[in-house]
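Ticket 4471: requesting a sanity check on a complex prediction with iron/sulfur cluster. Repro inputs:
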Amino acid sequence: MERADLRADCANCFGLCCVALPFAASSDFALTKDAGQPCPNLSQDFRCGIHSRLRERGFTGCTVYDCFGAGQKTSQVTFGGRDWRADPATASAMFAAFPVQRQLHELLWYLADAQTPAVGEPLRTELAQAYAETEALTGLDAPALRALDVAAHRAKVNVLLTRAGELARAAVRPKPKDRRGADLIGARLRDADLRGVNLRGAYLIGADLRGADLRRAELIGADLRGADLRGADLSEAVYLTQFQVNAARGDRATRLPATLDRPAHWTD
Ligand code: SF4
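Returned structure tokens:
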């Protein structure tokens, strides 16, 4: 699989994130709906009827979400292009398979990211094997996906990701502080040198990271909602996702890895 296969391709998806997932009315979603209930803004052709006005209509969460390519995989591979409207008998199985596929695709994203130049043997081979194994799981049929113990697989892969992350950060000297899981909500980190810092699972909600240097910082699971990344350097950040970037603020001066896009809602 290519990196492009690990990014949402809404044109080949049956609007699964707009149907399968539950929403609670909040600052991210203007309405409440149950899992399996189509969003009222979803058109018959599975396009969003308010795509260009999502933020102004109170659906900020929709501009942040990324399925890691699980939507098109579930639609076109698991269900062979049969959509839940034309074939309602597929609906519940499709909506149950989608979240599992998303977790698997997210793991594939991290496993691809883990293969930095810092990783040598035997870890490189172990990462490649884990990637192949995870990719094979994405090819399971719907009942097998539903029965899959994805948490156990995730835990196994996480051991490798942790080792690869340590190696990616190891070259930074002096050894930075470990801020794993740190509460950095609203922290003032403007122009901070955060190179190689372990920010795994850190809470960076609303943090001021303007101009910060986050090269080689490990960001898996870090909560960047509303973080100010204007002028920050994340070009070599480890385990950064489009979902995290979309949830943050940034500008033209923010440096991102080549695998990620600059969000359309970022201002200059
Ligand atoms: S508002 Fe649009 S993108 Fe968001 S869930 Fe509804 S149809 Fe999908």
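Notes from triage: The longest helix spans residues 91-113. Leaving this open until the requester confirms.
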